[in-house]
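User: I'm putting together a teaching handout on how sequence relates to shape, and I'd like one worked example. Could you take GGDEF domain-containing protein from Pseudomonas flavocrustae, show the sequence you're using, and then write out its predicted structure as tokens right after it?

Assistant: Happy to. First the sequence, then the structure tokens directly below it.
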Amino acid sequence: MSPADSDVDLRALLDSIQEFIIAKDGRGRWLFVNRIVLEAYAMLGFDYVGITDAELIELFPDHAQAFAYNIETDERAWRNGVATQIEKSFMGPDGRINTWEVIKTPHFDAQGGRQLLTIVSRNVTERKLAETALQDSERRFKSLAYLDALTGIPNRRSILDQIVGHLAVASPQAECALFYLDLDRFKAINDEFGHEVGDRLLVAFVTRVSACLRPDDLLGRIGGDEFIVFLRDTSATTALALAERLCLALQEPWTLQDIRLATTSSIGIAHGTAGSLNVHELIRRADGALYQAKRAGRARVVLADG
């Protein structure tokens, strides 16, 4: 095989590679590029040998920003003196962001002068999309771990963690209150109308409760039709007044599509200071007060004894 045949084979090989391959001399003049580079810059048939990116800005203004970025990052690689990785993103012809991973490697002569800059770029768009999808999936998984799937509010684990976190940093004298509440006759509604209607009622219940709470109040679902509300920096008087308003609002009839339901809610309240009660004691006392409210006839509020 003659040297000429060998050169032709090497060119064909490099042109078949779907990665950018570029060589520039120490003054930034293009010495070699493979076909995919010429296609990307709409330079097929152009005699590029000896041209610089600064000159290409004038000749191919549609790609001026890319050539300017080349100049900037080439210089960065020369300053670093070692292979330098750069990530480059731009809007592709397919209407999505294309991301390229670029490695620029400077080569110096024996005296330390700039001799050759080799550049290899590969399209990592699919990898980036996969990484983004994985990150989104992880975020959704973490969200599901802390949110109730039906209502979208914090689940038991999340609401308890939030309360524990508040009690840990609050002043020991800071007052707080916890409501334990549920829907009266919820099991009977589920039995009569089915779980789908029961689920709709729970979602509507959360919406109505949320509308009655203050911005800093915390609402979470413990399980089934049982919920807790945590009120920071709240006196017993204020907590009782809010619970009474909430209990009254929850007595209004529920209209779920073509079904009209009449049910109420009972609320048990535990009140104390951040330094005197932990979350489990708050829940125990509020649950006991809720039991008293139900025994007293439902649709009412009971404040646990201090």
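A couple of points you could highlight for students: The chain has a mean pLDDT of 89. The domain at 3-129 is CATH 3.30.450.20 (Beta-Lactamase).
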